[in-house]
Amino acid sequence: MKITAIETLVCHAKMRNWIFVKVITDQPGLWGWGEATLEWHTRSVVGAIEDIAQLLVGEDPRWIEYLWQMMYRQHFWHGDNVVRGTAISGIDIALWDILGKIHGVPCHELWGGRVRDHIRLYCHLGGGRMEDFYQTDNAKRFGELAQEAVENGFTAFKSMAVPETMPIEGLKPIKYAEDCVRAMREAVGDEVDIMVDCHARPSPRMGMLFAKALEPYGLYFLEEPCWPETADDIAFIQRSVKTPIATGERLIGIYAFRDLLEKHAASIIQPDITHCGGLSEVRRIAALGEAYRVAIAPHNPQGPVSTAASVEFGFSTPSYIICESVHNDVHWRKDIVTEGYSVKKKGRLVLPNKLPGLGIEINEAEVRKHPFQQEVLQRSFYSDGSIGDW
Question: Domain 109-367 maps to which CATH number in 2.60.40.10, 3.40.50.150, 1.10.260.40, 3.20.20.120?
């Protein structure tokens, strides 16, 4: 059995282009689907996949670890940058899809079988553009969005209630974030879990101030309170508040997570399966996290293959607690994919996939109805005109 080709299909889906990866074999009807979506870097990732494909065509798709090592260690540069890591991830996911199809079982059966009956999903409330964040009715709007999420069956949701700030600011942004989180908590009560994503915008000191201000509201977790490059500062925030701190979506590979975990910088790690090295690497990251008794909740705002991979990983991973879900980004999402798992609306619980591999199939004709479009690059500025973090 040999790999004969590796193809990419780009599908424009509003704020990002989904990059689907198809690994084709010499066995009739046998191929695997992966995803390598990376916002604002679509051409770079497609090119990286074309470069890496030279190493794999002609190889046995069942030798997944061998091929992963080939992708990671060849070309002189290791795969620890986001473009190369994303390209490796997309191909690796597709190889696991193939292996599941060869053996006629879902991917989670390849990794020791199920450890749970269902996986809980959470949604993202968004928060609008940052320049609109200080409108006086925004707290009320967050409360309304929180109620809508619960009405749609979710028992957990995330929001971007923390606005952009300069390295040091006064009370206004702190009070704003507190008002928004208070409105959400009052809207849904204590039985619904609320997460707040800082998007690594604050400086370490501002991140600490936000963490302290939001501590009374019992957040399920506070995400990326400052830059991931400053793991010592994230660790300091983690030690200073009762709120669990989550981070990791921008880290590529096990070595980056090793450094984070050694500093005890997070209660929840959030590797993105489409960036960190695929299903092969995220399983190693999860195993390392087990040694520190840290939970895992993958970053997953991309397309349907990313979600299927996150779900399969979750069913076989003991420390997995919850899965990020995108359910209303484009109204034609269901037209391009068939999925082997099902979702109970009440509680938004994913039931196990019973189909081989990832349990998905991409409708290539439908994908071609949504060809590549250049994403609108996001820019962010502080009040004095200096560059901020988007």
Answer: 3.20.20.120
